[in-house]
Amino acid sequence: MCSMLLFTGANANAPFVSSAAPFDNPHEDARALQLQDMLVLFLLPAMREKLSQVYARYLKATPDIFPYFVQVTDIQRPNGFRSFEFLITLDVIPTVGPHISVGKDRFTYKISPGPSIKLVNYQHLKSPDPQAFPPNYLNLLK
User: Fold this and answer.
1) Angstrom distance (rounded) from CA 59 to CA 52
2) pLDDT reading at 127 higher than 50
3) Distance between CA atoms of 66 and 74, rounded to whole angstroms?
4) 31 contacts: CB under 8 Å, gap ≥ 6
5) Sheet containing 104-112: which strands, arranged edge to edge?
6) Which of 23, 69, 107, 112 has its CA 20 to 30 A from that of 125?
7) Which positions ≥6 away from 119 have C-beta within 8 Å?
8) How does pLDDT run across 65-111, given as a tens digit for each residue?
């Protein structure tokens, strides 16, 4: 109950509303979803490192990435069936503070035996919008 109050405020019946809109949130677990989530966990450190560089020009704090704000949008095997080189594309909503969205980014990684991961494409799709920031977090913006 205590944690519920933490997220919902004084009114326990009010839903927690985040300023970062999560991607489609499945309501059932499936083997494919488990494997996708494990892969996202594997890639999080590399994504965080890139975002710390990119968002340094916008923010005083390094944004964080939560696995539920990562959407796998494409996976390919460029060398065909049962080859072990993959291209994976992920859309990410980085956040600061209590899940305040600071943008949107797209990563494409090459995953190959080793295991080896290499960023092959990065797109910064959306920057922080100062108008959407809560007033008590504006100090995080540059």
Assistant:
1) 9
2) yes
3) 19
4) none
5) 70-76, 86-92, 104-112, 116-126
6) 112
7) 46, 50, 107, 108, 109
8) 999 999 999 999 999 999 999 999 999 999 999 899 999 999 999 99
